[in-house]
Amino acid sequence: MPVVDVDPDELRYLTGHDEKDDDELKSDLFNLGLEFEGWTEDDEFQLEFAPDRLDRLSVEGVARSLRYHYGDDRGVEIPNTNSADWTIEVEDQPDERPYVTGAIVRGLDMDEAALESLIQLQEKLHATMGRKRAKGAIGVHDLTMLKGDSVTDETGKSITYTSADPDEATFVPLDADAEMTPGEVIDSHETGQTYGDLVADFDRVPAIYDAIGLFSFPPVINGRRTEVSVDSRDLFIEMTGTNQWTIDHMCNIVCYALAARGGQVEKVDVSYAEDAPGEYAGKTLERPDFSVRTKTVTHDRIESILGVSLDSREVIDYAERAGLDATETESDDGVAYDVEVPPYRVDVIHPLDIIDDIGRALGFNSLEPTYPDVSTVGGRHERSRLEDAARDALVGLGFEDLLNFHMTNEVENFERMNLSTPEAEDGNDADTVGLADPVTIQEPYSEDYTILRTWALPSIMMVLENNTHRSYPQDLAEIGLAAGLDDSENTGVAEHRTVAAALARTDASYEDAKARLQALADAFDKDLETPPTTHPSFIGGRAAEVVLDGESVGVIGEIHPKVLVEHDLELPVAAFEFRLDALA
Fold first, then answer.
1. Could you tell me if residue 557 is left (phi over 0), alpha (psi between -120 and 50 degrees) or otherwise beta?
2. Staple partner for 58: which of 121, 330, 396, 479, CB 3.0–4.6 Å?
3. Alpha helices in 196-293 (DSSP H)
4. Whose CA is closest to 220, among 91, 141, 133, 159?
């Protein structure tokens, strides 16, 4: 979950509520869904929140939400924008990174706090929407240090987004004192070594020029000539990426944050060449794009989801207090509302997102719980009973119970466990535990969570990796969801509950894990057999199938040294994993 450092004094200044003490701010933030995680060394709040509200990745965005919460602001706010004076000419750009957007913000009072907030917002957007700069990267420049070329109508200035030979173009990058080529930046500059892989395979790298020369090497690093400081007043913002929608909305979030600091937003024309790759060839886009989107939600659905009775005026009022604009209309299902969504909100996809905003403005803590109007009596599912019984048995055997995320990524799920991905030609046996075609997320918010896990043992290994500073032994277990693609299922996905456990200690061995597994099988009156097997995650000759009542349901053994090294573990680990339904 994203964590943002926020200065409470800055919050009081930007919201205009100096009377709020720290405890009141924490309470108000919690009502918005932002949880206080602790203090930084600089006495700033550490706030954790759901990764959907990317407009809150800066103190300016958090303050905006608080002002709506307090009723100081209402409805959709669109910053005033001046007409475009600058143009980004796009020609011969790399096919792998064809899109660019931009904006100018003038008249800023860039003090230390504002500069730190801008840097943090840039880093957080890179890590989330930008997919660690792979999908979108932000460059912020001191406008006074740019010299624009004359555009064709001779009424404005231009810069050019194009490509460059990585061994010929030169510039002085940030944190450097001498000119370097992009290739040298990738090889020897600290930032280049971190992000150079994004463009290392390009024949020609992305480059942005003004009349003086190269000043930005996206998505790796900016030039030192245009570095932003506390003395900067006018900023040029450029963003390149693989998706126009993504970088446009990243740009909106940055512009809103700077507008909250008193900046005047100025539009930029983005002119794509006739032969440019992508759907915008030959077109000129006016950016930033502050157009609003409209979603329609019915009155009955709002009342049904929230469980309260509201009149139309209340719905419109709560929508405006959530930073939205709502207009009453009619639909086939009765009274409805056309709700306008501001351009910095990237999370509003479905009418339920609108209802969630209305509920937060109403105050979820004020909702009265009611029994559902149904004629059935609830009861615990047999699977739930089995799961609780298995969990109690594992705790009784000395394991600490874990609850991990069901989402992960292919590197954690396969590669770091010494497993080939399912599509690899040299892949493992199809019956290998954990080896299944994963359910992938089409538009993930983070590279850390791109698939549903196919087994739970990688999650436990990640916990052990994060707990190397804690004392041993560490005996961990989890009962949770695993899934894989399966055409025989109606949904195309086969889900199951899995039991995974690991013993991390100086004397951990196959025999220790087998003893715990045997005790667990006995508790459920199951006959256990462990014929030898091979599995890439386990040491050869120290691994076996888990066979319960004659059915092969899992694997047990000592974790392979490659996997231990990959997770920075210096102690042996013995583990097992099998399907929960085998205990039924």
1. left
2. 121
3. 244-259
4. 133
